[in-house]
Specification:
single chain, alpha+beta, 17 helices, globular, disordered N terminus, disordered C terminus
């Protein structure tokens, strides 16, 4: 009997398990990244009043409740047929930008960063935020903590709670901000811009300044050519809060651009018997299995995907950082836009560019005269029926879709969360990393196990975030089988057996 000890919230998100199968030659024939737990929110929300959904669904994730709160609030806008005012949209987006700053900061410094700052082969006990602080210095550690603290202060100020916000309502927001609060948030936004620029400089010094890391980023072991998805504004620039969903093919050509409410016309979900998560794919291409390329309907929706799907960034310094990344990684411009970057580990770089964009966008919005408009609540009079809400969660395009009866009681719920979009690419990346790193006679080390983890960690999957318990440890088990199905070796970390 086996038991995995996790907190209640992390149990909500589940944990990861990798199984690797070897062929007769001792090479990797297949590998599976499995999620053996069931979320179930779509089912147990049925029968609840729709207006409760922003407060229920933000419990899906302990790391990004703001994303679910916002997607759910937008779904209520559509469900109750009420259009938010310009001031409400700006207030929501400003709130959401503060969330993005703290979320991307968490992943870079606490989850993804240790692989580069400490090194992929560093002792496991050191690959965490404390190890990062020990390596880069206490002052930088204090900057990271200060960044998270000041932005969670904004989240609490605007959202009503520091975690699991409650401010979203159909067509509006529970309260406006005062001029005094605006001035305080403006100073926080300025500090965020400085912190984002500092983080990009740190990435440049530590990662790009190390040829071994650059070679690893550019290696075939961490490369996939897929379709890319992301939300864009009217200029085809990245937008986290609102816009059209744009998908480009592996060559960077626009494949489709659609309104979020039409997602079912373009995205379908494939089911495998070995996992509870589904595998979304592009309907027009079809499910062809866990393969990349233009003939496969597998798409990706990550920070790097959003940049690949867009023509650029809407703020000046993020635009400069965006162009620098594509130029450095050798992407060519075709018809005025860069061709996609397919190196999955470059997602860490893209995440920092998005961090800078979120900080700049937050500053733009807080300096907008309309941001203190006191008229942020509206009276809802329409009969609810059906609504779709969509935002870009840090981990990918997040869609909430609700149906109700005439009394506003939910009759059906469908959620496609950010990580779900990326499940097929994650599975492919784990398999490719395993095949590249494990050959006949390879000695399985902790460092090798970590390099396989890096294949999915770049995606910042929700189950990894949620199952990280202090000090940032993810229960993970890797089982290696020979061609006869016998267990050759089983490696695990943070898995308790009884």
């Amino acid at each position: 009997m086996k038991r995995i000890t996790i907190d209640p919230i992390t149990r909500l998100e589940g944990h990861g398990k990798i199984e690797i199968f070897l062929n007769d030659e001792g090479d990797v024939a297949n590998a599976y990244f499995m999620i053996p737990e069931l979320r179930g929110f779509e089912r147990f929300c049925v029968g609840r009043p729709a207006e409760e959904m922003p407060r229920i669904t933000n419990r899906i994730c302990g790391v990004c409740p703001e994303a679910h709160h916002m997607a759910s609030t937008k779904a209520l806008d559509a469900l109750f047929h009420v259009e938010p005012s310009s001031a409400v949209k700006k207030l929501r987006e400003m709130f959401y930008s503060a969330f993005y700053v703290t979320d991307h900061t968490t992943h870079f410094y606490a989850l993804g960063g240790p692989d580069f700052v400490l090194g992929p082969d560093a002792p496991a006990a050191e690959r965490n935020i404390l190890g990062v602080i020990h390596k880069v210095g206490v002052e930088i550690g204090k900057q990271v903590i200060d960044c998270r603290q000041r932005n969670h202060h904004v989240i609490e100020m605007l959202g009503g709670r520091g975690v699991h916000p409650v401010a979203g309502m159909p067509g509006g927001w529970s309260r406006a901000i005062t001029e005094e609060e605006r001035q305080e948030i403006e100073e926080i936004a300025k500090a965020n811009v400085d912190f984002a620029l500092f983080s990009l400089k740190l990435f440049e010094d530590i990662v790009l300044g190390n040829q071994e890391y650059v070679d690893m980023i550019l290696s075939d072991a961490y490369t996939h050519r897929t379709y890319y998805m992301g939300t864009v504004d009217e200029h085809n620039h990245v937008n986290f809060y609102d816009g059209m969903i744009r998908v480009v093919d592996p060559d960077g050509k626009e494949f489709v651009k659609y309104h979020p409410k039409d997602y079912t016309q373009h995205v379908a979900e494939h089911v495998e018997p070995w996992t509870y998560l589904k595998f979304p794919y592009l309907k027009a291409v079809g499910w062809k299995g866990f393969v990349d390329g233009k003939d496969s309907g597998v798409y990706c929706a990550t920070p790097l995907s959003r940049l690949n799907a867009a023509d650029g960034m809407a703020t000046p310094r993020a635009r400069e950082a965006y162009e620098k990344m594509y130029e450095t990684l050798g992407s060519k411009k075709v018809n005025g836009r860069y061709q996609p970057v397919h190196y999955r580990l470059a997602t860490h770089w893209a995440r920092l560019i998005e961090l800078l964009y979120a900080a700049e966008r937050m500053l733009e919005l807080i300096q907008d005269p309309e941001i203190t408009d006191p008229n942020v609540r509206v009276e809802v009079t329409s009969t609810p029926d059906e609504g779709v809400g969509c935002v870009e969660a840090p981990r990918g395009t997040l869609t909430h879709h609700y149906w109700t009866d005439e009394n506003g009681i939910l009759t059906r719920v469908n959620l496609i969360v950010g990580t779900t979009n990326n499940y097929a690419p994650i599975a492919m990346s784990v398999k490719k990393a395993a095949q590249s790193l494990i050959k006949k006679g390879t000695v399985i080390t902790d460092g090798l196990l970590n390099r396989i983890e890096m294949a999915f960690r770049a995606y910042d999957p929700c189950m990894a975030c949620a199952t990280h318990s202090l000090p940032g440890q993810m229960p993970l088990e890797v089982t290696i089988y020979d061609a006869q199905g016998r267990v050759v070796e089983r490696l695990s970390q943070y898995v308790e057996r009884v």
